[in-house]
Structures are given as C-alpha cells and as structure tokens.
Amino acid sequence: MKPKHAALQQTIGYQFDEPDLLVRALTHRSFAADNNERLEFIGDGLVNAVVAELLFTQFPDLDEGSLSRLRSKLVSKEGLATLAERFELGPLVLLGTGERKSGGRHRASIMADTVEALAGGMLVEAGFGVASEVVATWFVADVASLDINTTRDAKTRLQEWLQGKGYPLPVYEVLAISGDDHNQMFDVECSCKASQSKRVGTASSRKKAEQKAAEAMLEILEHE
Q: Quick check: is 116 catalytic?
C-alpha cells in the first residue's frame, strides 16, 4: 500500500481490504480499461441516498422541492469536487497522458466522479450499512451549516422581496436566442418597479436565464 493511499484512507475514514479496489476507484477511463466508471455509477446512488437522509433528518419542516435543491447543492459536480479537494485526490487519480496534459487533475467533473467511485468501492466491499455510515461523515458538517434560504430559488426570493415592499411582480423578457437548436443560449432581461436598473441573465434555457437575471436583480435591491 502506497503511503499516499494510506493517508487517503485515513482521511476518508475507511480502510480498503482490497487495495486493487481502491486503485480502480482512482482510475479514470483515460488511463485503463479497468477503470472507475462502474464504481462511480453505484457510488452516485449511495451518495444521493445518504445526503437525502441527512437532509431529511436535519430539516424536518422542509418540503420535497426544498430538500431536493439542498441535495443538488451538496452532490453537484462543484460540491463533490470541493470534497475531493479536502481529500487531496488530485495527485492520486490515475489519468491518461492527454487528460494529464489538459489539466484533468483540476477538472471538477473528474474529481467529482472519483469521489463517487470511492463511495462505490466501499459499497461493493463493505455493503450499504458500513459505506453509508462513512459517506455520512463526509457530509454531516456541510449539512449542519446549510442556509435554508438557499432552498428558495432566485425568482421566488425576488417575488417575495417585491411583495414584501408592496411592489408589483417583476417582468422577464427574452432579448435573444442564439446558437443551434441543440445548443441554444437565452438572454433574458429582468425589470421591476423597485429599481431603475435592469439585469440580464444568460443560460442554456429560458428558465435558467430567468433565474440568473432574478439573482442579479436581487443583488441590486438588497444593496441599494
């Protein structure tokens, strides 16, 4: 067992009985045919289930939509990549030459997938009970520190802010749609009576662009 592997296992809170399973969890598809994709698949399900249970217990009054948004924040590509940084996974992931040269060790998607593969490796080796307990330790502090205001999307928060001040609802207008049919980008403008400023959000869907525009408008209103 390599010293770095020993340090990783201490950090994640689990000692693999099968060193080869740990190595497979750290192996990207660009490096070898025997890689971590299958472990990532099963680990994804485990991580989502564990985080869902933590949130369900921590926030007994939140509805399904709010819980889902909180879970998405924690198990998103960016959220899991942050966890990978804590584990110092970057130097340990086995990458093909092309991925190494293109900065794969700093790519959020690769790091997030590796975290899920580690969870999958534990599940395969130790079963759901042990693996879920270990994964829970990865997220328990983050769950406890969550701000439940993040469960409400930007459009909802903007609407509540305006109504609380006696203003009418905001207006969203699509300014432009660009790109091919399968790869469109939407520019959406948000305006409201509470501010002379207007804000534009750009995203791959109208809904997401509206959310970005609403978030930008909120930043103006909350600091005016």
A: yes
